[in-house]
């Protein structure tokens, strides 16, 4: 009786063991995942995406030194800084599965700081470098935000991402230039709300965030942004945190930052008509100068030709003599000539 009851139990255990083995195996037709690693960065990908995986790994390795310096992580370079795993997906359903939820089709990458993962879609190499650097910035800032228990401001996220990716284009320069010409540059307090504005305001917010992060990084390289986050966690006041980190009043910092922006990008904001007028005036002046110079040359050439023609017509020996020279001498007179 006990044996009869044991037979189904053994069979059940065998089926459970077989099911566990089958679940551990990759699904039929599912490609095996591969991995590339450099330092603390690992890229997981399918075989057909190896070229893109190498591009993503190179982009991460290029952006990391910039972020490490800005965030004060350089001293932790000996393998103790944050490990990062980049997952690459070719199809939308694979991307959503790796993210853990449905995402809009236009999303190209997502940073998951709590998991220290970045999920990317396969992209063109030029776009991939920008997206990787952006998501890597969000991941590292998110990790640091948890350490100090503060949420970094939006301008810091986006500005540092553009700074690390070297993502500052001619379009950004033109956006800043037009704002300078029209007197629309955003002040420090206006940056957060501008990200929720219209298309023009959002573009200006992104461009000015880049210039602000670059300005602050030049003031205090090697960890200034990390100190700013720490001070922000203490004060919960963005402007007081600027004072504590950079040792200058926020008004002075803002004035210098905006002055640099105006000086650097005013020329990019000149309207096309003004640029055309300037170029036309310069071209006209150059043309007038050429005409005057050409006329002087022709007159000089004409005079030389006339003189040469006269020399041929009248040689020096055949030139007509002038009137006889006047003389002060008188002919001797006979003193008796008038005597009768």
Written description of the protein model:
This protein is an alpha/beta fold and 340 residues long. It has two domains: 29-148, Glutaredoxin (3-Layer(aba) Sandwich), CATH 3.40.30; 166-297, no CATH class. The protein contains twelve helices and five strands. The chain has helices at residues 2-24, 50-70, 92-99, 125-148, 154-165, 170-182, 191-194, 199-219, 224-235, 238-246, 250-265, 272-313, and strands at residues 33-38, 41-46, 84-89, 109-112, 117-121. Helix 2 links the parallel strand 2 (41-46) and strand 3 (84-89). Helix 6 (170-182) packs across helix 8 (199-219). The protein is elongated, with a radius of gyration of 42 Å.
Q: Please give the count of helices.
A: 12
The level of helicity is: 55-70%
Strand order of the largest sheet: 1-2-3-5-4
Query: Which spans of ≥5 residues are poorly predicted at pLDDT below 50?
Result: 1-6, 325-330, 335-340
How many domains make up the coordinates?
A: 2
Determine the N-to-C terminus distance: 203 Å
Report the strand count: 5
Beta strand %: 5-15%
Question: What shape does the CA trace take?
Answer: elongated
Q: Report on the biggest sheet.
A: 5 strands, mixed
Query: Structural class, please?
Result: alpha/beta
Elements, N to C (H/E)? HEEHEHEEHHHHHHHHH
Mean pLDDT rating: 82
Rg from C-alpha positions? 42 Å
């Amino acid at each position: 009786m006990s044996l009869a009851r044991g037979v189904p139990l053994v069979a059940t255990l065998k089926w459970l063991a077989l099911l566990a083995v089958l679940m551990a195996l990759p699904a039929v037709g599912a490609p095996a995942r591969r991995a590339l690693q450099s330092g603390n960065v690992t890229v997981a990908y399918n075989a057909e995406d190896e070229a893109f995986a190498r591009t993503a790994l190179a982009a991460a390795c290029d952006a990391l030194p910039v972020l490490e310096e800005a965030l004060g992580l350089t001293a932790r370079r000996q393998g103790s800084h944050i490990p990062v795993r980049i997952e690459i997906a070719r199809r939308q359903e694979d991307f959503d599965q790796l993210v853990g939820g449905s995402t809009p089709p236009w999303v190209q990458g997502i940073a998951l700081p709590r998991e220290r993962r970045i999920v990317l879609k396969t992209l063109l190499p030029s776009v991939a470098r920008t997206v990787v650097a952006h998501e890597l910035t969000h991941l590292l800032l998110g990790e640091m935000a948890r350490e100090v228990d503060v949420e970094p401001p939006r301008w810091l996220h986006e500005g540092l991402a553009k700074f690390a990716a070297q993502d500052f284009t001619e379009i950004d320069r033109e956006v800043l230039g037009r704002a300078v010409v029209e007197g629309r540059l955003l002040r420090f307090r206006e940056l957060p709300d501008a990200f929720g504005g219209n298309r023009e305001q959002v573009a200006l917010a992104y461009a000015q965030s880049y210039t602000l992060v670059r300005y602050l990084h030049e003031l205090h390289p090697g960890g200034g942004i990390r100190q700013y986050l720490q001070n922000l966690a203490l004060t919960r006041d963005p402007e007081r945190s600027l004072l504590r980190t950079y040792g200058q009043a926020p008004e002075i910092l803002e004035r210098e930052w905006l002055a640099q922006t105006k000086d650097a990008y005013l020329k990019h904001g000149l309207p096309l008509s003004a640029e055309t007028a300037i170029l036309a005036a310069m071209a006209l002046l150059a043309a007038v100068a050429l005409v005057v110079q050409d006329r002087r040359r022709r007159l000089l050439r004409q005079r030389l030709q006339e003189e040469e023609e006269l020399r041929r017509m009248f040689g020096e020996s055949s030139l007509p003599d002038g009137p006889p020279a006047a003389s002060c001498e008188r002919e001797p007179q006979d003193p008796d000539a008038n005597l009768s």
